[in-house]
Amino acid sequence: MAILKLAQPPSPARTGVWIGIAAVTMSFAAYTSALVVRQAAAPDWQHFRLPPILYLNTLVLLASSGTLVRARQSILRDPAGRIASTPQAVTWLAATLGLGILFIAGQVIAWRDLASQGLFLSTNPSSSFFYVFTGLHAIHLLGGVLAAGYLLGRLRRSPGWTNSGALEATSLYWHFMDLLWLYLLILLSLVF
Amino acid sequence: MPDMSAAPAVPSGESARRAAHAPRGFLRKQVFSLDHKVIGKQYLDLALAAVVTGMVLSWLMRFHLGFPDTAIPGLEKLAPNAAAGGIMTPELYLSLMTMHGTLMVFFVLTTAPFAGFGNFVLPLQIGAEDMAFPRFNMMSFWVTFVAFLVLIAAFFVPQGPPLSGWTAYAPLSAIGKDAGPGQGTGQTLWVISIALFCVGQLLGSLNFIATTLDLRTRGMTFSRLPFSTWAWFITAVMALIAFSVLLPACVLLLLDRVAGTSFFIPAGLVASDRLQPHAGGSPLLWQHLFWFFGHPEVYIAILPGFGIISQILPVFARKPLLGPRVFVACLIAIAFLSYTVWGHHMFLSGMNPVSATLFSVPTLIITIPATIVTLLWIGTVYGARLRFTTAALFCLGFISVFVTGGISGFFLAQPSIDTYLHGTYFVVGHFHFVMGVAAMFGIFAGAYFWFPKMYGRMLDERLGKLHFVLTLIGVYCIFMPMHWLGLAGNVRRYSAFTDEYMQGSLPLHRFITIAALFTGAAQLIFFFNLIWSRWRGSPAPANPWQATTLEWSVSSPPPPDNFGRAGAPPVSHGPDEYGVAGPGGDYVMQAAPPQPATA
Amino acid sequence: MARKFVFSLPILVLAGAATIGLAHPAKHAGTISGHVTFTGTPPKMKPIDMAKEPSCAKQHSTPLLNESVVTGPNNALGNVVIYVSAGDQGGAAATQPVRYDQKGCEYIPHVAVMDVGQPLEIYNNDQTSHNIHPLAKVNPEWNKSQPPGAPPIKTAYAKPEFIAVKCNVHPWMHGYFAVLKTPHHAVSGQDGSYTLEGLPPGKYTLTAWHERFGTQTQDVTVGEKAATADFVMKATPY
Amino acid sequence: MGKLFAAIVVVVTLVSTAVFLSHAWWMPADISVLGVGIDRQMTETMISSGVLFVISQLVLAAFVWRYSERGDGRPIRIFPGGAAPMVVGATLLVGAEIAVLSLVGSKVWGGIFLSRPDPHALQVDVQAEQFAFYFRYPGRDGRFGTAHPELVDDASENFFGLDPANDTTARDDIVSASLVIPVNRPVLLSLHAKDVGHSFYVPALRIQQDFVPGLVIPIHFTATKITKQEIVCTQLCGLGHYNMRAFMEVMPEKQFEQWLEEQAPQ
Predict the structure, then answer these.
(1) What are C150-186's pLDDT values in tens digits?
(2) Which of A1, A34, A125 comes nearest B280 by C-beta?
(3) Distance (Å) from the C-alpha of residue C113 to the closest C-alpha of chain D?
(4) pLDDT tens-digit profile of B445-457?
(5) I need a surface site. Which of A42, B299, B559, C114 has the fewest CB within 10 A?
């Protein structure tokens, strides 16, 4: 929260996202500890090769963070910290949105890949955790996609000055989803 | 400290102002309202519905324990399957017990003191126009409401509600119908309900934290924050962490039940002659996840009580709280320690005996801040000028029952004694005193104190005092004997006591039953008071108690936008400046101009 | 007409006819009778240790023997359900209830045979609470406690099935519901004998079912005089 | 009103304390070697926390009685020394109590759960299931047959899923519904659950231990008196939980050997 204290005018939206990030982090920590305990509980852990498309998806997600950064750079700001949209910003944001959806589509392909190998949710603790982790991340990212869509709509409709809360919040959350995915990828590639 | 006066400039804030200024029609005003005051009341009404249900369930259980062979009039109509001839079946008893625990812990002790009073009072106390995210706030309530409906729905499925207790230990809760009636659909509904509840409370705590951090009015520094707001803030942080762990636990349990995974179910289980198609899961994993939430949950239920008491006691003692900084420090210490003690619920669970001793140390240490807080309250009473309003009486009662319940914790915190008392009524007595009765006393104190602010009418004080006296005597008659039962080895969660060595305790059970019905009847006084005073009570002035915090500087009930377009006045005084020469008498409002020097 | 006759037979029922088969005689019809025996060595039935439930244990002067295999002299095999599995012209399902008792923590009878849709009444005669848990697969499964003094549980089954019945509170308590499409059925006594009555002349397929030793079938022709059909089950020691 | 409150608190405190002291409801007589330590621990805790209980309730009552608002404009008084004495007092007093209790207590606890079982202890395999306990003795060969969950068949009383057909060590295993043990001889139980969680509780032994499905949990003790006790389940396990029990018979060594002989399958 120290970061917040530095930020002058307090933006509840940004604070809220930080708190949300804390909650999501906590719950994924819980899932991780569950994984560790479960893996140690019985010798039935089955190792399998992660669907290669995951690495492509990772690049897609990283790219989406990049485009989001560009979107923020190309937005106009006034001293009061308010923002106004620009055509480039809209384009970059649209790109971010598209890449986000592409990522989720890629995850679906990864699941079908596993299913075709006969690895389903209940097949083995390892596959169970794989679906749980990737599925929950996809759901959380979907939230980010919705937020980005809402933001895009606002920027396109109102070219005037608006406050930056929604933009800051969305990009904060989006980058966090990015980091969370990197963490999950490392975790999965370590235990699978 | 940066200037925190900035009114919310985010869309949610604007929508809040819109909603607050121009509530369109009954639906937006009363049902799907974005106004924290309405949402707070909705939470309290939900808690009321839950507490009435939970209490009736406990009457049925107590009646069955006290008079096992007597048919309960009307029960056969309610449960023709499970109570043929009005005689309760064991599974009905256990499902009543499960629903009682779940309703009380989640839908009463979490919603009422935290989500209910917190929602109504916190923004007023910090001088905010509304919560930071009114839409999330509304969602928080409605998700919780749906969770409540899903839980109640378990009463109406063929095999009835689950019977695995509010802790839903796996694999009893995980393997489905083979574990017994109610473990099929009923248990599934339970898991879904609790998962939804987690979502609702996460949205709620997110709001509490953001609001307290960002929406405090000018001059409302943390050192001037009212103690109740402190407690709600700390509770929100705890809830955020606790429910983000319970939610995953519920998701995994649900998958074990419906998707055939094996997170909590080990291999080779044979239930009802059927080899269960699972392998490798760990029942202890559920216990760890659940109690990592479960123990903090105890403090989520009681900390708001701490805050409410520390807020109300000075008002009626007409003197400041003793050691305010120490008090807040203790709250934080308790909140922190509560995450290091969950293992004390698992001393006998077969986890490493060494870790049992490790868990028992923080469990005992957490009694130090708790003791300090209690002493602070008693020290606040010293040299006071006590005004015995009903709210004040419930504060004093809170201190008494909290001491009683806290001290029996000394026994259970020690593995070597827990090994004798673990599964007995001693535990039931302990947690009912410390988190049930104490938290309820906090709720009652808050209700008698803030009702005027909520509905613009006073609760009847004569009825209130009668209610208090009967309740205080009643709870001691119910829960103190449970410690004696426990010492005699009387096992809890039994629907009947067939074992010879327990026969000696049957008269005591009968006494408890009578006391419980008596105390339950006493609560009808409270319910009548609530309903009658809501419309017929004497009109309440803005500040009937001569209190200092901001909520008392606005009309009762407050206008939709709380402090009007101008926003809340700047704050230049502490939350409990009583016993000093002030304009209105022996107190200085927080919002009063800074001149008068505190005595 | 069979039904009218049934109504004139409550005495027989009250007398506690061990099998429903007796309750279906029809005039001018043939009977099938026979013996069920076993070959091989059946398992030694262990005495049941009821120490957990003294109120039941004290009702058995000598410990109750496990009833999953009941044998008699000269390899007679009891508790075998014999019923018409084919060739039955059908007949009205019996309407008088089948009585199933829990007494001394024992199911009486061990195998209760009933027609599809025939009322079933389950009584608890003990001082302890039982839970009746018929492990049905075709029919809906239920599991319900019956405290001492509670009224009988009244139910019926809609589909034919052999349903294992257990009491979780007393793990040794096991029995069977045999729900059959035909009114022509019998259960062999400890002497292995059984009788099917009221069968119009014709060709029938009989099936014999035992909870441990499986099923056997044979064809029988009923003429004017009584037909006989013996069954020999293959017993295994474990 | 304040005086009434004070009176109620005082009465409640004194009556409760009296009942605790009277031992009208108390632990049954201890029959185990380790129970002594637990009882001492219980007594010490009872005294120390009892004193805290009585003092704090009476002080609260006294203050409430004394400091109700009167007509006089008597000024309020702050507790001498402010919060400091509270903090110091609580920390020292409770801290000391905690230190003592956990030091002594962890010794007692260790004595039960961290001590090694006697190598010559009588070994009994305990299975908890809905809703009964079954106890298995290794029989003449002194070895337990292997349990196969898929072979479990209550109907033919194969509660442990033994395979006497192929597993010779299983043929002489003795399965009993009661726990029969010799007096003054260490006993080592290994607890495992067949379906859901259960617990093993014999108040007179001062021992309570959960059965956790998937785990085999050892617990050992020595009974010192010839007696018959009830074993009850204290972990919610389903509809028959209240009726899940067995009997523990402690008998002289000779009688026990004789009992084993009688039980041995022919």
Answers:
(1) 899 999 999 999 999 999 999 999 999 999 999 899 9
(2) A125
(3) 19
(4) 999 999 999 999 9
(5) B559
